[in-house]
Write a structure and sequence with these properties.
Length: about 150
Amino acid sequence: MNKIIWILLALISGAFLPIQAGLNTRLGKSINNPVYASMISFIVGALSVAIYILITRQQVVLAGLRTAPYYVYIAGLLGAFYVTIIVLAFPKIGPALTFGLVVAGQMIISILLDHFNILVAQQHSVNIWRFLGIALVIVGVVIIRKF
């Protein structure tokens, strides 16, 4: 049952991405600067996480900040890149194509990470079914673009 809850939460999380992009795009138009909209989105997000941490009394091992590999901090840069590009692409190519490409990119990199056992808990080799899954996502993106 626990796995079903996580599957549903992941699905809901994915459903929120186009809504977030649309809202960030509207904010960017309101303030006449999509990059500032991206920054404001991160500030609101950071404040929300800070409030959650306070309410739930989360613990942290601060010494871990010094011992964590340097490359883990790139995650914040990747998040900023993602949100900013989405805010810029969303009004130019539309939500369906934008997020079709996002999903295709996520699937390609996810399967490579799985295959080469990078940043994953368990290695999964590329096989014909995984390749077919990516191909179907890419075909879906092509169909969305064409029609």
